[in-house]
Amino acid sequence: MKQKFDIITSTCVPLPLENVDTDQIIPARFLKATDKEGFGDNLFRDWRYRPDGSIVEDFVLNDPKYKGCILVAGKNFGSGSSREHAAWAIAGYGFRVVISSFFADIHKNNELNNFVLPVQVSENFLQELFQTIQNNPDTQVEVDLPNQTVTNKATGNSEHFDINGYKKHCLMNGLDDIDFLVANKDKIEKWEHQRN
């Protein structure tokens, strides 16, 4: 799942629902595993499939006209429990970016820790994205991490997004927290030596 980020341009999967919580992202019955593998298969499981296992044809992830590595979601995405499995499922499905007008803090950090970039935009920009994607599912969105901008390629409209500087560095260099510490081992040891 570790992939360097730079500029991602992709079509989008729209999920115009507010207050999507982590139990909807990955139902609790799938939390027994401790390995990240396979969680993408059960992303939005209860919305994608009926209890008998048949596909819900009109759910967006089952609609072949919507594809891409960017999920555009309604306000307050990732609320509810702090389960990291929700971020595992999003990454495991293949999403690299989630765009919303508001993220639950813990879920936002879980996404960052799993190499999924949460991009928070204004409500007006989010609604424009939903409308543009509905009008043309082939609409592309550009997410520029170095410049911290997101652009609707259909309209040319763009917004700046915030990201913690440390997390930005890690994403751009494909580093998790352990990788970052290992890469800075000499500096850490030098600092420790100076303190003794």
Automatic annotation (TrEMBL):
Pfam annotation, one family: Aconitase_C
GO biological process: L-leucine biosynthetic process
Keyword flag GTP-binding: no
Positions of the Aconitase A/isopropylmalate dehydratase small subunit swivel domain: 4-123
Catalytic activity: (2R,3S)-3-isopropylmalate = (2S)-2-isopropylmalate
Broad class of enzyme this protein falls into: lyase
Regions crossing the membrane: none
EC number annotated for this UniProt entry: 4.2.1.33
Stretches of the chain forming a coiled coil according to its record: none
Keyword presence, Amino-acid biosynthesis: yes
Cleaved signal peptide residues: none
GO molecular function list: 3-isopropylmalate dehydratase activity
Gene3D superfamilies: Aconitase, domain 4
Entry GO CC: 3-isopropylmalate dehydratase complex
Pathway: Amino-acid biosynthesis; L-leucine biosynthesis; L-leucine from 3-methyl-2-oxobutanoate: step 2/4
Key words of the record: Amino-acid biosynthesis, Branched-chain amino acid biosynthesis, Leucine biosynthesis, Lyase
Subunit and partners: Heterodimer of LeuC and LeuD.
Similarity comment: Belongs to the LeuD family. LeuD type 1 subfamily.
Function: Catalyzes the isomerization between 2-isopropylmalate and 3-isopropylmalate, via the formation of 2-isopropylmaleate.
Protein name: 3-isopropylmalate dehydratase small subunit
